[in-house]
Amino acid sequence: MLEQAAEGGARLAVLPENFVAMGRRDVANIGRAEAHGHGPILPWLKLAARDLKLWIVAGTLPLPPDERPDGKVTACSLLIDEHGEQVARYDKLHLFDVDVADNRGRYRESDDYAHGNNVVVADTPVGRVGLTVCYDLRFPELYTALREAGAELITAPSAFTAVTGAAHWDILIRARAIETQCYVLAAAQGGVHPGPR
């Protein structure tokens, strides 16, 4: 899909949240490998960005934050430029700890993830881009802070559940765009997932 985006003239592509992993075991393993520079994902993304001359928002990767004693990772969204360099990192602020009327019922991202602490805006060829992730869409004050920091476009890579996505996805994206007068570029999961999600 990145190749199709580049061939179509895109200058920025956004991958969805959890584009490489959805399960707890995957989160822990990927986080450890990528943190120590032994994982395949970051080098692949950087190479793709460079080869395709494309800026990429890497949905989320489970990466450890600096000095985290409990071993938790953050849901980290990386902005990679067309030279393959990482220019920004956003650690998801609002974790999805909710009860949902679906087959799973209870979601607790805080069991595996630590929350981030910073609002992130970066300069790109398509304007100043603010970074958010999924559940952040439910917190308009974050989007206001991004706009006040100069964001013109805000990304929202997501992995909504089928129930919450059907009920809220479009409404939340439109609300954040209207409130901030920014474009919101939101990429969601697609296809079939194993399990109750």
From TrEMBL:
Domain of life according to the entry: Bacteria
Segments forming domain CN hydrolase: 1-197
Keyword Zinc-finger on entry: no
One MF annotation (Gene Ontology) recorded for this entry: hydrolase activity
Entry annotated with the keyword Phosphoprotein: no
Pfam families in alphabetical order: CN_hydrolase
Keyword terms, alphabetized: Hydrolase
Cited InterPro entries: C-N_Hydrolase, C-N_Hydrolase_sf, UPF0012_CS
Entry's family note: Belongs to the carbon-nitrogen hydrolase superfamily. NIT1/NIT2 family.
Name of the protein this chain belongs to: Carbon-nitrogen family hydrolase
Protein source organism: Pseudomonas syringae pv. castaneae
